[in-house]
């Protein structure tokens, strides 16, 4: 018992670690030095200083696993130069889907901007219509500093044009799928 008390009283020496933060708006990872005793929430706050996205919309992943806010970096078994993927959840815009989508697992899709210059990870619900993606991109373009084509654009998923009035499920969009932005407008060919 005495040994346990002495271990509890001694503060753990702070151990610094450099993490490579993969932010959607940057092609190259951003190095960030943190203390191993810091929480994931504190890491999100540091990322918020770099990327002006609300902390509650940030999801952090390492080796494919989501990092929980209350856990320390040490508990998450992060090491020097660990890669942290930052995913931005869509803002709660109240898309008006009747019955809600609480029972559905969110899809994380990657949106490629023109010429593939940026890869933007976004979470959507399978039951959401594609127009939700358009609204989310309009919000994110200022925060993440990318341009949407002013003359109009449409989405392509697996070489098929996506209809804004159809759901992601209807388009057979799966977890991790890539959706590309193309310049122009889609017209019905009659």
TrEMBL record:
<feature type="domain" description="Ubiquitin-like">
    <location>
        <begin position="17"/>
        <end position="89"/>
    </location>
</feature>
<dbReference type="GO" id="GO:0005654">
    <property type="term" value="C:nucleoplasm"/>
</dbReference>
<dbReference type="GO" id="GO:0031593">
    <property type="term" value="F:polyubiquitin modification-dependent protein binding"/>
</dbReference>
<dbReference type="GO" id="GO:0043130">
    <property type="term" value="F:ubiquitin binding"/>
</dbReference>
<dbReference type="InterPro" id="IPR029071">
    <property type="entry name" value="Ubiquitin-like_domsf"/>
</dbReference>
<dbReference type="GO" id="GO:0005829">
    <property type="term" value="C:cytosol"/>
</dbReference>
<protein>
    <submittedName>
        <fullName>UV EXCISION REPAIR PROTEIN RAD23</fullName>
    </submittedName>
</protein>
<dbReference type="GO" id="GO:0070628">
    <property type="term" value="F:proteasome binding"/>
</dbReference>
<dbReference type="Pfam" id="PF00240">
    <property type="entry name" value="ubiquitin"/>
</dbReference>
<dbReference type="InterPro" id="IPR000626">
    <property type="entry name" value="Ubiquitin-like_dom"/>
</dbReference>
<dbReference type="GO" id="GO:0043161">
    <property type="term" value="P:proteasome-mediated ubiquitin-dependent protein catabolic process"/>
</dbReference>
């Amino acid at each position: 018992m005495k040994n346990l008390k002495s271990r509890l009283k001694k503060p753990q020496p702070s151990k610094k670690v450099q993490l490579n933060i993969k932010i959607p708006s940057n092609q190259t990872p951003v190095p960030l030095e943190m203390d191993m005793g810091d929480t994931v929430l504190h890491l999100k706050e540091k990322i918020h200083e770099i990327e002006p996205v609300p902390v509650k919309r940030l999801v952090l992943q390492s080796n494919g696993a989501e990092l929980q806010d209350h856990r320390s970096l040490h508990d998450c078994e992060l090491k020097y130069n660990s890669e942290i993927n930052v995913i931005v959840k869509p803002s709660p815009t109240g898309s008006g889907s009747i019955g809600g989508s609480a029972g559905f697992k969110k899809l994380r899709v990657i949106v490629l901007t023109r010429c593939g210059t940026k890869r933007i990870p976004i979470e959507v619900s399978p039951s959401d219509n594609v127009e939700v993606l358009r609204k989310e991109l309009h919000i994110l373009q200022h925060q993440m500093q990318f341009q949407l084509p002013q003359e109009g654009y449409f989405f392509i998923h697996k070489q098929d044009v996506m209809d804004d009035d159809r759901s992601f499920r209807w388009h057979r969009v799966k977890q991790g799928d890539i959706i590309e932005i193309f310049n122009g407008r889609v017209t019905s060919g009659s």
